[in-house]
Amino acid sequence: xxxxxxxRVLVIGERDGVSGPAIxxxxxxxxxxxxxxxxxxxx
Amino acid sequence: xxxxxxxxxxxxxxxxxxxxxxxSKPLRDIGQDPAVLEAIxxxxxxxxxxxxxxxxxxxxxxLDPEMLGAVPRPWFRALDGTASSTGAFGDLIGECELLGLLxxxxxxxxxxxxxxxxxxxxxxxxxxxxxxxxxxxxxAAADAGAxxxxxxxxxxxPLWLDGRVVGxxxxxxxxxxxxxxxxxxxxxxxxxxxxLAVRRLLRxxxxxxGPGDIDFVLAGxxxxxxxxxxxxxxxxxxxxxxxxxxxxxxxxxxxxxxASTLYAVVNAAALIQAGLFSRVVVVAxxxxxxxxxxxxxxxxxxxxxxEDMLAGIAILVERPGARGSDPSARGSDPSARGSDPSARGSDPVIRLDTLGLHTIATGSAQQAxxxxxxxxxxxxxxxxxxxxxxxxxxxxxxEVTEPSGSGDVPRGNYRLIAALGALRGELPxxxxxxxxxxxxxxxxxxxxxxxxxxxxxxxxxxxxxRAGQIRRALFMAKGSLFLGRMTDASDGVSFILEx
Lengths: 43, 499
Description:
The complex is a heterodimer. Chain A has a two-stranded parallel ribbon with strand order 1-2. In chain A, helix 1 links the parallel strand 1 and strand 2 (33-40). Chain A has one domain (8-40). Chain A has one helix at residues 20-29, and strands spanning 8-14, 33-40. Chain A is an alpha+beta fold. The longest helix of chain A is centred in the middle third of the chain and has 10 residues, at 20-29. In chain A, 23% of the residues lie in helices and 35% in strands. Chain B has a single domain (5-498), classed as Peroxisomal Thiolase, Chain A, domain 1, CATH 3.40.47. Helix content of chain B is 35%, strand content 15%. Chain B has 19 helices and 14 strands. Chain B has helices spanning 24-32, 36-40, 47-51, 54-59, 65-68, 95-105, 115-127, 133-137, 144-152, 181-204, 236-243, 260-273, 295-300, 366-381, 398-401, 409-423, 432-439, 449-452, 458-466, and strands spanning 5-15, 92-93, 111-113, 156-161, 164-170, 216-219, 250-253, 279-284, 309-318, 349-350, 356-357, 390-392, 472-479, 491-498. In chain B, helix 6 packs across helix 7. Chain B starts with a strand and ends with a strand.
């Protein structure tokens, strides 16, 4: 388990998994600051 | 209510190992470290190996997708030396023939080929019935000195065949970054493979239709044709139509990342349903940028670089009753009638009343996307998951994607569809694997996103439906709109095809 509160986070989402915006919402709700977020496509 | 029908589909491939170096990923890596090319070159496949490769045989229609499951992995070691480069759905042409097609499709006189290569290409393409002697005879060869000179001056990039330079591709403008030799080669490759597919499609239906009977052409490829003032301006649909003698038609390009081609099919059906046109051709050419995209993983595993294929697809969509054929009117070559709609039975139709649409509100969660593209359209039609015989999703060949960690893409889609079915009580929770075995297929398409995105199964579905093997298939494509940095949104579209 990682304590995200107060942390600065770079978000890399994956198209077939969890998208960047979805991770961003979760990370923010845990009290972290999102510096950058994007979703990648690997096919 | 009657709906537009799909009456013929051509699937073609072009072997392009000499162009792998110009794929986006190899080109960038070679630019940083020229030694990368030394790692790539020995891993490029021969034409014979590309023809003998089972997924390619599935793509051009000499094998059914379901038969691929019985071929032992790795497929690149289970080569069939008796396989043919002529498929029921189209040809798998060699690189010399591809270079000849590039030259034939080059209206700006930017492609230069030496005399020997042009002669060999001319003979190969004529043998396949893809070109006429007159149009190839009109093409002029370049001498080796001129090819070397424009390469050294920086005006052109070399074109390779079997490890030697046989030609060059010139830039279209001294300063325009949208008209560099690399960009134009990419666009021309999409055009040439699109032309290959449409010409094959026209041969399939030549007994009842000529090029002049086509009303409209839609292109759904991955290129960006344009100039510095309008990158991605378009025009590939009409460029391809022009090169195929489809002179009575107009048309335009459809853009939606990997969902482009399936969107184009929906648009074609909608134009027909609206009464504007009777016969629309949808065409998709290949993506040069994606050649060698995962070469690093393939080199690291000492396997062939499998992303050496450019693909093309052409689809004829017709108004119900527009087939009015005269079987004796045109042509007589039986090899061209692999999926001739006048050969048998009725045609499957696109259920426009049950389209699956990804709205803005759908969002980018995979569960929501599959709900929108599978569950909702089935509910509209009154069907349950098992009422659909085959699901065509993103049919990427897993042998290409697994080494780089991208997994088995079609299987991932099938698992999600089945899991939603289990959540809805349509399938038992332990019935996911059985559902995939009964309603899914192994991936067999080259990683040319728009081609792999369901449309590569249209030709197979048409054949299987005409043969009475299946009655209904769902086609779904997803588009990664977020890659263009204009939105965080995903995209997708789906339809049910049934007979």
